[in-house]
Predict the 3D structure of the following.
Amino acid sequence: MGVLRWRSVLDSQIAGASTQPLSRLDLEVLTALRLAVYQLGWLSRIPGRAAINESVELVKRARKRSAAPFVNAVLRKLAAGIPPNHEASQRASGASAETLAASSAHPLWMVERWIQAYGFDSALRICLYNQSIPVTAIRLRHPEAEDRLHAEGIELDPGVFLASARRVLQGDITNTPAFRAGLCVIQDEASQLVAALVGRGLHVLDCCAAPGGKTAAIADHDPNSKIVAVELHPHRARLLRRLLDTRANNSERGNIGVVAADARSLPFAVKFNRVLADVPCSGTGTLARNPEIKWRLTPEDLADLQVRQLAILRSATAQVAAGGRVIYSTCSLEGEENEDVVERLLKENSSFRVIDCRAELERLQQEGELICSDPSSLTRGLYLRTLPGVHPCEGFFAAILEKT
């Protein structure tokens, strides 16, 4: 994860010590160099000689033996110049997009977009958050869960936004009987917030349900609702079914149905009171947990994603009963995937209007579910908008569309 977070900084250091362009290096050789440079500069408990020797051996085992002397020479040169515990001094900084992108190991095009959309200070905070290890957030599903976790050695803090959320300060929650019994689930608070916005409905459709976190949260909020969870791929639908069975109480098992279908062409004749369209997206709001995204995503990908997202939203709106709502959401920071999709749908379909998310957040606050003192701080215009670093969670967008 460290190599993925800091890849461009590592590559810059390697390029400065290498006699060959990085583009000419075999991937195995470059990977071994990145691993060693990260260990040399970021991990204080690993001796430099051990990091160098291990990477040289990795190159040999990858059948690139002829490159071993080159790797050894580059790493020894770098070891003499990299100060220990380099991470402490490697902080996102600078007064320009170029400096911020270089110091925080983010693609320049991505940083430029965030500065334009949210301002330099927010872009700086996003980059800092993405380069840190995020706190694990959980959602409590049973009154006994917190006491059980404390008894099992897990140290918790209250959530920032939601009464049912907790933040793990110490301990591995995945090894606890309480977690395995489904008394709690790992779920970012922004993701929990999107599920809470769905509200209550007799018939609920989750268009893009896998891996099932929001589906389970909707069922927990309203055990009387009948929920249909849609997943495109049959094998993932089977995994989703098993996961939901594990998480559900006995009384809820018959309330969630899983269907393998394409969300762009939903096969239902029935209309739903609530439809969640948590669409596939770029994931730029989740880079702290998924740093590999920033190295494979291109600006051109956003247009392709928007086409798919708009098709899913069109399909979702066709499934809504009169007076019902569609909650459209992504974990992206990019306007093309968020506001632009919603506004295009509204231009095409005059039977829907946008509900101000602030009103729904205030409702959740009055009901005691939302504990944030200033719900408006979680919105941007009419929409839910969380930003990593600005808020202590992942970056999520949500819009509520009501059928008139």
